[in-house]
Specification:
The chain is about 80% helix and about 0% strand. By secondary structure, it is mainly α. α1 packs parallel to α4 and α3 runs antiparallel to α4.
Amino acid sequence: MTSDKAIISILQEQIKTYKEFHDLLNRERVCLVKIDSEKVDEISKVKDTVVMKLRLLEEERQRLIKQYAEDNGFEMDINLDKLGHLTGNNAFHELRSQLLSLLQSIEEMNRLNSILIDRSLNHIKTSTNFFNLFKKEQTPNSTGVLLSKET
């Protein structure tokens, strides 16, 4: 029988990992502002690893909740709020609240970083177009046709 303590343990690990992800997004924002592409790339690789860990934790949480519901004869569609009511354990409500708060904060941080990335890309496009103006002036637009005179 799966205990509610196992589910709480997974939820706490998820919260810890989401906090780590939030910190990564903060570091990424700082690097985007400084235009430090190497650090952004490095952080991106770490983010991929953290996202994979979060997926695994979520799959385990869902499995544990499903198992808990089956073991205790509850309906299959059970969420943290219902689980808190069914078990009488207020920890589920608190953990749910923490998760929601973290997810909203991550969503906002991700949106901000996306805006910074878009602005950086526009800056790069503008700079590239500017330098291409000079390149076009130096390179004639010829088709490569060569005329020869024979005498």
